[in-house]
Secreted protein
Amino acid sequence: MRTKIAVIAATAITLTGLAIPVASATVRSASCGKMSIGQPGNVHVWGEYAGQVEQIYDSCADAVSAHWQWSTQFQNDHAGATVTLRISSPYTVASVTTTGWTSSKNVDTGGLAHGIPTPDAWQASATVAGCSDWAKGSLWWYGGQDWGQQHDSWGCN
C-alpha cells in the first residue's frame, strides 16, 4: 500500500510542477572483498605438481598481493618444503616477498596499494625449494586486461 501512495504522491507533485529538493548522497557498496586477478602460474618440482600462485586484489584495502596454494599431494610427499612468493611490478621497485612452508595450505604476501606504479600493473610469482625457475601469474594491468602471459615453472626436475 505504501508503494502505491508514494507513487501517487510523486506523480501528483510532478504534475503540479512543484520543485522538491532532493538530497544527494554518495553510495558505497555494502560489500567488498578479495578476488583473483589475471591468470595463475603453476609450479612443478621434482616431476610433481607443487601448487599455484595467483594475484589477489583486495577491494576493501585497495591493495594487491600474491597468494599460493599447495597441492595436497605435494604437501604430503614433501613435508618441510618451502615456497617463496612475491608480488611485484616491472614499473616500480615496490614489492613484497614472503616464504611459507608445506605445514600451511595457503601462503599470502602482504598487500601493496595497487596504484603505486605507473602504469598500474602487477604480477604474482613463486618458486619452490629455491629452484631458479619462477612461476608467474599474468602481468595484470588495472585498466582491465592481461599485459603479459602467465608462466609455469618446471624447475628442479
Notes: The two ends are 72 Å apart (CA to CA). The chain is about 15% helix and 45% strand.
